[in-house]
Every structure is written in structure tokens, then in C-alpha cells.
Amino acid sequence: MAGIEEVARRAGVSPSTVSRALRGRSGVSERTRRRITGIAEELDYSISRSASGLATGRTMCVGVIVPFVWRWFFGQIIGGAEQVLRAAGYDMMLYTTGDLESRERFFRELPVRGRVDAVLVLSMDLTEQEADRLRGLDLPLALVGHEAEGFSSVHIDDRQGTRLAVQHLINLGHRDIAMIQGLEPKPLGAIAPIIRREAFQQTLSDNDIEPRPEWMVPGAFSIGAGERAMDQLLATSTPPTAVFTYADELAMGALRSMRRHGRSVPQDMSIVGFDDHEMSEYVELTTVAQPVRAQGATAAQLLMNQLTSGSRETSVLPMPIELVVRGSTGPPRSSAELSGD
Amino acid sequence: MAGIEEVARRAGVSPSTVSRALRGRSGVSERTRRRITGIAEELDYSISRSASGLATGRTMCVGVIVPFVWRWFFGQIIGGAEQVLRAAGYDMMLYTTGDLESRERFFRELPVRGRVDAVLVLSMDLTEQEADRLRGLDLPLALVGHEAEGFSSVHIDDRQGTRLAVQHLINLGHRDIAMIQGLEPKPLGAIAPIIRREAFQQTLSDNDIEPRPEWMVPGAFSIGAGERAMDQLLATSTPPTAVFTYADELAMGALRSMRRHGRSVPQDMSIVGFDDHEMSEYVELTTVAQPVRAQGATAAQLLMNQLTSGSRETSVLPMPIELVVRGSTGPPRSSAELSGD
DNA sequence: TTGAAAGCGCTAACAG
DNA sequence: CTGTTAGCGCTTTCAA
Questions:
Q1: Are A231 and A295 in contact (CB under 8 A)?
Q2: Given this model, what pLDDT does residue A98 score?
Q3: In the beta sheet, which residues pair with residue B181?
Q4: pLDDT tens track for A243-274
Q5: How many Å apart are A138 CA and C8 C1'?
Q6: Are A97 and A67 in contact (CB under 8 A)?
Q7: What PROSITE patterns does the record point to (chains A, B) (predicted)?
Q8: Closest Cα partner for A22 from B105, A307, A35, B50?
Q9: B248 vs chain A: nearest CA distance in angstroms?
Q10: Class of domain A158-289+324-338
């Protein structure tokens, strides 16, 4: 491990000149710079990030917090963010906070402290307390999924997306519509699930449909949870004719449940998802598409902007959504029969 | 940002004592430790990782290299690894090298240098040159997926897995068997795809079946690639009756192609995948299951062992595999007709 | 354009 | 059990 001193000695200059030369700072003659670069390469010199970090106070590292890595959705966002960070010369520190324990631990110990120059929170609904902990870091902060004081933010219009989905079902003739929610019974200050639930109920009301409490079932975030939720709906005395789900993965679980019960989609049940998961096309799921990679990339870019400008000004960027109609939605059986009469 | 000196002053001790106390080192009275801990908490003191890293030479950080984050398979492995690293007090630095450009860039610049205490390579087939670059780091190294000199390694028996899958097809009565490979035309020293291809051909030979070159189609790693591959197979003059695919995601693409062509599975075509993707159960895919999270976790554990023991001894751990038979495989139509006669 | 010197905040070896 | 001292390897004034 050759140090900067070694490079300096061989180049016949001082360490400061090497430092300047290697980082492209001005104040070094082109000739000297070239010589230094050559020798550094020859020696396979690589800077000590710890030393550099200690001296400058910057780590050239961004902390990314995400509930899970193994969901397609999060993987995509992370990928988008990483690309931007890498291009700007930053490395990415990954923290997953999927289960309650690791989440609490993260916000208690705040392992990003002193490790990163900025923090990117991906699709996680922060409690006010958690957001506060992060603000206390006094670093540029960004958020994908919703807005929060002190964070730059990139997000879609959850209300509008929900409306698109539900109105689509209503337009097809459905009136008995359930929702598989993305919400644990005890939310941690989650906001998107709440917005979508409210928008769901609002859209029904706007169409003079009375929301039915037993048709609002919890779903968490897995295929299995979606399956159980649909099982539950099918077990009610009068099952709905259509279901709006919080996420495509829940919808896929719902599809699985339908298949297991020998019911067909959309004849026996219309299903709409949210996200436009890469598999959704395959299972012919009607869904609300949102740009996923782009949200990660954009949020990372906002962070980079703050970092280079040195400003602490946050910004908010809305992202487009779109209803993608596929085979999982159709008119309810009753209306089909009626029209057949 | 209170420093260690501030804490020391308030506690009426020296910085070294604070350092010892906070890191749980011996040689501090319980009373003093408690007092220091209290004050540190009160001041919201957090250690400067750069300074600590510079002083100790350790970063408490592990570099994880992975082709993509957005594949279920990789997400799972990362998740498994992260859990183990976090528990051991290490943070995780993530590097994705999915496309050629970022891969070359990574191995050229080696951004892990001076940033991490160990490197974990997940399911990436390294070229000898790339492995060399990593070995030059002189850090503990681990690999998931295959073996390499100087790396601890966790992997399944690809040959055996392939044999399980292909023999299953043969036992069902298939003799016209194709393979959708996980191999780009110009491999980068990839080894698992080669092993599986060879094992595929060997298994056929062992059963006196002549492998047919036009039935060996390339597949890369996406659902789309699997779909195109199956399109290609269906377009041959005499399509096979069964297909073994390199990965479940390719198999899902193959299923999509079948559906698009109005063919049914397994009547018109039996399909076997590899991995046991979480969606595979849903699409009723017969597959070779391998532990995924566990491989990431185990590899991380091997690294932790090396780090704590300080030894540079590498170890190799085989992981179990299992054929999971679901609805995507059955006897070939001809044999079904014969038995019906 | 370059060099000398003074840290950045922590740890570790050695004394006490 | 605790303090003193001397760096870890780089950056950054300030002076030349």
C-alpha cells in the first residue's frame, strides 16, 4: 500500500502537490500533474478514504435506507439511485430496515452518522420521530414516496393513481369493490397506504357507492399476504366483484388465491394492482404504472445537486402515473349476464 | 458534533478512557464506563468513522459486488448477507456491475480500495483477471456461486442440479429436450452456465439421447430473454417436447411465450427452471430449488470468521439442492397418446 | 507553481 | 484502572 508520501518522493515533489494533482485541483503545472499521475498509477497508489475523509470531512458516500432489497420494486429504485451516485463519484452504503427490529435499531444507533454525506430514504414511510432523527444529522436528505419537511422528495400522486384504478372498475360496472391494503394493523406512521385507502373510499363515495368495512382487508407487502387477503374476501357472505390492491405483488397473491379456489379472473373477480411490476404483464394484471428506476435516480440526483451546490434547499418532484389495462379486469358477471339478456 | 475530547472533558477523564469505555474494551471500571456512556448519549456523541478508520486501519465495512439488485435472486442473497454483516457490526457497501461498462469500471478503479475490510462477490462469475484484481486487495474475499483460488466460497452443485432436472424430464418420457441457457454468446469467463450446459448434454448422452445444437438457445437473465428463446424453439422445424432453463426467470419467459402461442404447458411442452423463485410456485413451475438467502448469509459469515480470526484461510461450503416438481412438467403428448391407445 | 506545517478525531503503546 | 504521547494519511492554509 503505497502512500501519498511515497508517490511524492518518487515524483520529487511534496505530498501537497500530489494531492492537488491527483484530485484535479488547479495550481499544478500540466507537466508535473502528468508525471505524478503516471507514478501513482505505476505504484498502484490509491488514496486512503479514511484519511481523506478525516481531513476533508467528506466521505463521498451516500446512505440508502430501504425496507427490503428483495422486492423487485426496491431493487429497481436502488439500481436507479446507484447509477446516479456512482456517476457522481459517490459510493452507496445500504441499510435495510424491513423488520421492526432492524428499523428500530437503525434509528437508535443511526449507523450512517459520520459515514455518509447524504441520506436517501427509499419508499419508506417515516414516522415524525424517525424523520427527526435523520434531520438531526444535518445532512442533505431525500425521500422517495412521499414528502416530509427537510427532505427533497420524489413521488407520485397516490390519490390520483388510486382514483384511476377504482374509477376504471366502476366504469366497467362494478359496485361491489374491495381493497387489499398495504397497511399493517398498527401502522408506523405510514402515509401512502393511508392516502390510497382514503382515495379509494372517496372514489366510491363520489360514485354513490357505500364502502363496506369488511371489504377493506389488510395486506402487508408480500404475495402470500395478498393470497390470504383474497381468501378472506372470498370467505365473506357476499364477496365483492372487484378488488383494488395496494401493490402488484398483493394482486398476484390474490390471483393465486382465485386460482386455488377455482374461480376465474376477470369473470368472477376483477383485480387491479399498483406499480406495474415486471411480472404483471405476464400475469395480465391491470395496474397503475409508475416509473420506478427513475424515482430512485431522480432522488439521488436531487441529493447530488444539494451536495455540489452546498445548499440545503429541498425540492419536490412529482412523477407521472398511468393506468395500464390488461386482462385482469372486466365487467362483473351480473352485468355481463344482463347485457346478454 | 461533539468529539471524543468533549466527552472526555465532561466526564473528567482522558480521551483514551472514553475510547476504551465506548468500545467495550476491558480496563475501565464499570462505574467510569457507565458515566462515560451516559455523557456520550447525552451529548449525542457519535464516533467519527473516518478518524477511527484512519487510526485502526479498519473501516468496519464490507464491499458487496453483485450484477443486479433488481433480480429477486440477488435481492435475497444481499438480504441474507446484510443481516449477518449488520449483526457483526459491519456496514455494507453495495456495488452493482450488471452491465459491461460498470463492470469494467469497477475492476479498473476498484472503488472498494481503502473503503472496506472484506469483499463479498455474489453470484458473479469472475474472470481470472478480475479475480486477480480482487486478490491484489489483500483482503478476505468470499464468493457465492462457484469456487476460486483465494476466495472462501458457498455454492451448490450445478452439475447435480442440472442432472436432477433433466433426468426428471427423461423419466417422464421426454427425449426431445432443449435448453435455454444462461449464457451470452461471448461469456466473460462465466462458469456456472458452462457447467450446467455440459451437465445437460452429459445427462442426455448418459441416456443415449443425442443433444441437438439447434435446441441449445441462449437466454441471458431476464424474463424477456426466456420468452424470445422459447419463440425461437417453437419456430424450429421440429420443436422439442421439453425445455430445461438456466433460471426460473427464463422459464417464466418461456411460459409467457407458450401462452402467447396458444400452446399449453405441460401438454405441449414441459418446462423446468432453476432457483425456485418466489413466483415459481404461483406459476406452477417445476424447478431445482436452492437456498438463496442462506447462501448470502453463509458467505458473509465466512468473511466474518476470517475477519475476527485474522486468518487468511479460505473455506468452501456446499449448499443443498432439491428438485421441486410442480405442474409445468408432464409426459410428452406422444407418449400420452400412446398410453391412451 | 510549489512546499512546510498544522491539524482532522481517533487509537494504541507505554507509563504510571 | 487511567493518562500521556505519538501517530494513522491526507488536506489545507500560508508563505515562498
A1: no
A2: 83
A3: B218
A4: 999 999 999 999 989 988 999 999 999 999 99
A5: 19
A6: yes
A7: HTH_LACI_1, HTH_LACI_2
A8: A35
A9: 12
A10: alpha beta
What's the pLDDT tens digit per position in A260-318? 899 999 999 999 999 999 888 888 999 999 999 999 999 999 999 999 888 888 999 99
CA distance A178 to A242: 6
Rounded to a whole number, what is the distance in Å from the CA of A244 to chain B's nearest CA?
A: 20
CATH of B61-155+292-310, one of 3.30.450.40, 3.10.129.10, 3.40.50.2300, 3.40.50.720: 3.40.50.2300
Residues with CB under 7 A from strand C: A 12-17, 20, 26-29, 31-32, 51, 54-55, 57; B 1, 3-5, 15-16, 19, 22-23, 45, 47-48, 51-52, 54-56
A128-135 vs A100-109: helix axis angle to the nearest 10?
Answer: 30
pLDDT grade, residue B341 (50/70/90)?
very low
- Single-letter code of the amino acid located at B166: V
| Closest residue on chain B to A45 (Cα) | B113
Nucleotide nearest to B31 (CA to C1'): D1
Q: Give me the helices (H) in A186-247, please.
A: 192-206, 223-234
Q: Edge to edge, what strands does the sheet with A322-324 contain?
A: A216-218, A177-181, A242-245, A270-275, A286-289, A322-324
**pLDDT at position B188 over 70:** no
Q: Which residue has the cell 405476464?
A: A282
Please write the tens of the pLDDT for every residue from B3-49: 898 899 888 898 999 999 999 888 888 888 999 999 999 888 999 99
What are the start and end residues of each CATH 3.40.50.2300 domain in chain A?
61-155+292-310, 158-289+324-338
- Average pLDDT, integer, range A18-26: 90
- Tell me, letter by letter, the H, E, C secondary structure of B76-135: HHHHHHHHHHHHCCCEEEEEECCCHHHHHHHHHHCCCCCCCCEEEEECCCCCHHHHHHHH
Query: What mean pLDDT comes out for the span A92-100?
Result: 91
- Model pLDDT for residues B121-136, shown as the tens digit of each residue: 998 888 889 999 999 9
The boundaries of every CATH 1.10.260.40 domain in chain B are: 4-56
At B184, is the pLDDT very low, low, confident or very high (cuts 50, 70, 90)?
low
Cα separation, A188 vs A124, whole angstroms = 10
Q: What is the DSSP string of A269-300?
A: -EEEEEE--TTTTTTT-EEEE--SHHHHHHHH
CA atoms within 13 A on the CB side of B70: 21
Mean pLDDT score, A105-131: 91
Rounded average pLDDT over A183-202: 76
What are the two backbone dihedrals, phi and then psi, of residue A319, each rounded to the nearest 5 degrees? -120, 150
CATH class of A4-56: mainly alpha
Count CA atoms within 13 Å of residue A310 on its CB side: 1
Q: From residue B28, how far is each of B2, B10, B31, B248 by CA, in Å?
A: 22, 17, 8, 56
**Do A196 and A246 form a contact (C-beta atoms < 8 A)?**
yes
Among B52, B54, B94, beta carbon nearest to A92: B94
Q: Mean pLDDT across the stretch A206-214?
A: 94
Report helix, strand and coil shares of chain B as percent, to nearest 5.
45, 15, 40
Helices (H), chain A: 4-11, 15-22, 30-42, 49-56, 72-87, 100-109, 128-135, 158-171, 192-206, 223-234, 248-260, 293-309, 333-340
> Which pTM value belongs to this model?
0.88
